[in-house]
Amino acid sequence: LPAGSAAWTRLEVDLFVQSDGVYNPHEMLKLRRVQGALSGQSPGSTTEIQGRVSVLSPTMSSRQQFHEQLWACFDAQTWPDKELIVVETYESRPSDFLKSKAKEDGRLVHVAFQRSSDGDFTVGLKRNMEIGR
What we know:
By secondary structure, the protein is an alpha/beta fold. The protein is built from five helices and three strands; from the N terminus they run H-H-E-H-E-H-E-H. The chain has helices at residues 10-18, 25-29, 67-76, 96-104, 123-132; strands spanning 53-60, 82-90, 108-114. Strands 1-2-3 form a three-stranded parallel beta sheet, sandwiched between helices. Strand 2 (82-90), helix 4 and strand 3 (108-114) form a beta-alpha-beta unit. The protein is globular. Mean pLDDT is 88; it is low at 36-46.
């Protein structure tokens, strides 16, 4: 485990190990939409914003044709404080749509990991990364 991992939760350690070191809790913390988050604060349920709805969606490059529809469904929801968290794995290129949309709309948190087809993360691992984030 890397330096600084002694402060990680069991979930964070498991995610780091199961992702072959790709998931780093400190890097994921930088992506959180938390007002006033402290730099040393652990991500996850310890820093929630009351009333915020987080929609979690794991995806992969073979499903990129559905990303615009995913966004449209999310955007059509009327809840005032919401975010869409997408963990995408891809072989050659991450979703152009999600990359672009995340730059223009802060409610979308897009995390993309390049993986080979035989080394892709499971849907469950991607969901756990979203929850741990």
